[in-house]
Specification:
By secondary structure, this protein is α/β, with parallel strands linked by helices. Among the domains are: 3-157, Uracil-DNA glycosylase-like domain (Uracil-DNA Glycosylase, subunit E, 3-Layer(aba) Sandwich); 167-350, Nucleotidyltransferase, domain 5; 381-488, Taq DNA Polymerase, Chain T, domain 4. Helices cover 47% and strands 13% of the residues. It has 30 helices and 22 strands.
Length: 780
């Protein structure tokens, strides 16, 4: 049972006893308990004033996570504790406690807010939840989230659930608009935010309201296209009326993910360029934390939860919710944006290199990506439709093959997309209608795993081979790309992709185009319209080049300086053959070796990596030999790996050559596997970060150089940039693109001079070039 003071009517519930608790008989008495006590004390709560318990009263076998059976069996004991304590406030630690009490799942979504609990046992109790302290011990990067949730719980206990003062004023008359223009004309900096339905190129698009603030407290919200708005029939005219004041020279504009707001306003003919984006600043300062405005307002300003006041605003809902709560919500958004900017600006000033990245790269990149998204990529609709028909024929063929291996009684009912049904079919004995395969791996629930990396080991079986092909064709190619693309095209046959500059911890762009298959069957539906050409510019072996620079790896530097193919060089070192004797398969193996061992991968991991990414079967003996030969060929890489490990253990972060920081607090974890992962990221993050920033900086430099009447950017993927160019000037622009990408002013801009040449391969075609039959599916 639990322990503590029941008279204070404060209750904290964990999941189940751990080993230390089982030995001592006292809940939360081990390292997790010490972390909890420390967080409570920092928030002004003493452990002696709290009753602490678990929803499950005995330690599950093998220290497994407690499930429904466990907590239902112990519910009677929990009822007795609650009846004694009669809590006015309760904090749930971990997903199992959340499920047992609130009957909700997803601790990361439910944490930090007051929960509705239907069980009469908790009537009149303020219930909140957060991650379990044991999880924080394994993943120290979550410490800030955990601590903030404890502070919020403490504020709830003290009755301090008050928002930072924000006063939204509704601007609903012509007179109010005139007054607002006067306020804007006298302001030095203005934060802005829109609530919208869909995007400007989609049916049903509208901007429901616009929020503006000059001091973070007094907020002006203008209702626009909302059905309840007095301006609904002339909302674009209202925006154009405010436009001169928002574009006034010298005015500083503040936004949160302003790329989104700018795209919306541009659809109405209002083109803004903000000078400070709090989401990008927050990402540079701490890439590990959530960047949404709800979290930033809680952790930076001490605000309380307000995001639910207007309900779920996805999929056009901004036009459906009542105007009053929508405007209030919009007002909090824009007020908090202004206040957060003041805090983050001070933090950035303390880090000059990050400030330089923010000003010289991140903000210009936001404006550039905004334009790339607005323009979109041209899709040949006729080609797209033909390929969808062809693809469906291949899908039907694979389904026919699959059903031939299913007992006749189940052929019409089995769902090959259900992992549960799939597992029952794959691993059941032939007598029970299954394939009789032996499980190689199990899931957390104990069922045989059916993930693709596992199924690859069975691909010699014709049914599994058909299943893998079906998954690729149906779930990836059709359902993820071709079909959604066909539904998203605008009236000009353009696909508007979305990119996040803050989407990854290394700084690499993320978005809906980042996992497009290499196969030309998919890629070449995208291209250029008649009279134009599609240009693809890719950095060549950029991560290997940057690693050579950072590690000062002499052999690699010499290879790149004289223009050698490093994959071919590695193949020669591995096989002892001359360049003309190296086969295509041996070069592919060398490529796997280069990218596998570059960041310190060990032989067993390399076996899986080579098999899953290059379809290469490597014995453990060969993997060990390849690793030994690789580091004998490039010995400075090992010294670089050791240096990075020492740095991350000393400072808990590493930096890229141009100053981007990768925070790695998980190196402090007590879990050896977590520490090793942090060490691995200390090695690869600076390389991947700089590779991404080179591409992004190239786009920033190219954007003002291009003449949109002749050549313009339409997208990016990994280390490549895509353009559309008029066919009569394509050669001229290809030279300019190559020159800009290969001669970036890194030293002048960021104080970094690379010791290795950076090479860009620039090609043009009518369509986006892919690799013919890259998947080996035989579809052309």
């Amino acid at each position: 049972m639990g322990s503590g003071n029941p008279t204070k009517r404060i209750m904290i519930l964990g999941e189940a006893p751990g080993g230390n608790e089982a030995r001592t008989g006292r809940v939360f008495s081990g390292p997790a308990g010490q972390l909890l006590d420390s967080a409570l004390e920092s928030a002004g709560i003493q452990r002696r004033d709290v009753y602490v318990s678990n929803v499950v009263k005995c330690r599950p076998e093998d220290n497994a996570r407690p499930d429904r059976v466990n907590w239902e069996a112990c519910h009677l004991y929990l009822e007795r504790e609650v009846e004694v304590v009669r809590p006015t406030h309760a904090l749930l630690l971990g997903n199992s406690a959340l499920q047992a009490v609130a009957r909700k799942s997803g601790i990361t979504k439910q944490r930090g807010v007051r929960l509705m609990v239907k069980d009469p046992l908790w009537h009149g109790c303020t219930v909140m939840a957060t991650i379990h302290p044991a999880y924080v011990l394994r993943n120290p990067g979550q410490h800030s989230v955990f601590s903030e949730d404890i502070r919020r719980f403490a504020r709830a206990i003290k009755g301090e659930f008050r928002a930072v003062p924000v006063r939204p004023y509704a601007v609903t008359s012509i007179r109010g608009l005139r007054r607002l223009r006067g306020v804007l004309d006298g302001a030095e900096e203005v934060s802005y935010d829109v609530e919208n339905a869909f995007s400007p190129w989609e049916d049903g698009w509208a901007i429901s309201c616009l929020g503006l603030s000059v001091d973070g407290k007094d907020v002006y919200v203008v209702p626009l296209a909302h059905p309840e708005s007095p301006f609904k029939s002339k909302w674009k005219e209202v925006l154009r009326y405010l436009y001169p004041s928002l574009r006034r020279p010298g005015l500083k504009l503040i936004a949160q993910n302003g790329k989104h707001d700018n795209l919306q306003l541009a659809g109405a003919g209002v083109f803004l360029r903000h000078t400070f984006d709090i989401m990008l600043a927050a990402h540079l300062l701490d890439e590990n934390r959530p960047k949404n405005l709800g979290f930033l307002s809680q952790t930076i300003l001490g605000a309380d939860e307000y995001k639910g006041m207007a309900g779920d605003l996805k999929d056009g809902a901004a036009q459906k919710v009542p105007l009053k709560p929508l405007m209030r919500y919009n007002g909090y958004d824009v007020g908090y944006t202004w206040q957060i900017k003041q805090k983050l600006k001070g933090e950035l000033i303390e880090h000059p290199r990050l400030t330089r990245l923010f000003v010289k790269l991140m903000m210009p990149a936001s404006h550039m990506i905004q334009e790339v998204e607005r323009v979109g990529m041209y899709v040949d609709q006729e080609r797209l439709e033909e390929r969808m028909v062809t693809l469906q024929e291949y899908i039907d063929r694979e389904l026919t093959t699959l059903r031939e291996h299913v007992p006749e009684a189940r052929r019409d009912t089995i769902n090959f997309n259900s992992t549960q049904q799939l597992g029952a079919w794959l691993f059941a004995s032939p007598k029970r209608g299954g394939l009789g395969l032996s499980p190689l791996e199990t899931t957390a629930t104990g069922r045989p795993s059916t993930r693709e990396a596992v199924l690859l080991h069975y691909k010699d079986h014709p049914a599994v081979r058909a299943l893998l092909r079906y998954r690729t064709l149906q779930l990836k190619w059709m359902n993820t790309y071709l079909l959604p693309w066909s539904l998203r095209l605008d009236k000009r046959s353009r696909l508007h992709t979305s990119y996040k500059i803050f989407g990854t911890v290394t700084g690499r762009l993320s978005g809906d185009m980042q996992q497009v298959p290499r196969d030309s069957f998919i890629r070449s539906v995208i291209g250029a319209p008649p009279g134009w050409r599609f240009i693809q510019a890719d950095y060549s072996q950029v991560e290997l080049r940057i690693a050579a620079h950072i590690a000062h790896e002499k052999r690699m530097l010499r290879s790149f300086t004289v223009g050698e193919d490093l994959h071919l060089l590695t193949a020669m070192n591995l096989t002892g053959r001359s360049a003309d004797q190296v086969s295509k398969e041996q070069r592919k193996m060398a490529k796997a070796v280069n990218f596998g061992f570059l960041y310190g991968m060990y032989p067993r991991k390399f076996q899986a990596y080579a098999f899953e990414n290059y379809d290469l079967k490597v014995s453990m003996g060969d993997a060990e030999l390849f690793r030994k030969q690789f580091f004998e060929s490039y010995p400075d890489l090992l010294r670089w790996h050791d240096r990075q490990r020492r740095l991350v253990h000393a400072y808990h972060h590493v930096q890229s050559p141009i100053g981007r920081v990768r925070h790695l607090p998980d190196v402090l974890s007590g879990d050896h596997a977590v520490v090793m992962e942090a060490e691995r990221q200390a090695i690869n993050s600076p390389v991947q970060s700089l590779a991404s920033d080179l591409m992004l900086f190239s786009m920033v430099r190219l954007h003002p150089e291009l003449d949109p009447k002749e050549c313009f950017m339409v997208g990016t993927l990994h280390d490549g940039i895509f353009f559309e160019c008029k066919e009569d000037v394509v050669e001229d622009w290809m030279e300019i693109i190559k020159e800009v990408m290969e001669s970036l002013p890194l030293k002048r801009t960021f104080g970094c001079e690379l010791s290795v040449p950076i090479v860009a391969d620039v090609e043009e075609d009518q369509y986006w070039r892919g690799t013919p039959d890259a998947s080996g599916l035989g579809i052309v």
